[in-house]
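Hey team,

Filing this mostly as a record. A colleague (T.K.) asked me to run one chain through the structure pipeline before their review meeting, and I want the input and output archived in the tracker in case anyone asks later how it was produced. No errors, nothing strange. Just documentation.

Input sequence:
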Amino acid sequence: MKTKNKERISALSELSITKLNDKLNQITDEDFDVAKKDNKYHYYGKIQHNAFEIRNVKYSLYSSGPTIQGEMEENANDKTLLNFNVDIEEHKQHVNVILTSAILVIVFTAMLISLGNQVDKLITLLVFGAILIFAILYVMMIKQILKNTRKEEINKFIRMTESKIIIVVR
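Output structure:
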């Protein structure tokens, strides 16, 4: 399983690859419904040999929660190197589509309303300008929330795998 994003995080775990794989399998179930009902599971997704693609159980299948994708490699002294990514790029693209759609709808509606003679064009412009500003602020807020969520997921994954980040490659 290759990561989709350009940014990769490398972390070193004190656990051997076997112990780390066992630990990930203990806290991960493939089925979201099973993982959500049982408190011992923190993630759901796939772990295949030394690769994984998992999500936190607090995010449903259709939510905007990030996916953790990566690989494990045996390292010297029975330690494990984790190369992974917490992907939010797909969700950022959805937000951009929402913004573009909102702008097109606002502009089209403002044009239709301004065609009528009874509406003051300045008031129409001000109202739709304010709506446009709110749409842009909303998208900026969602993107910041996605970045914060990514940071939280990285920290939780690092704790769960008993690892320390050694490098972030952008």
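Quick notes for T.K.: The two ends are 19 Å apart (CA to CA). The beta strands are 8-13, 28-29, 43-48, 51-56, 67-74, 80-87, 163-169.
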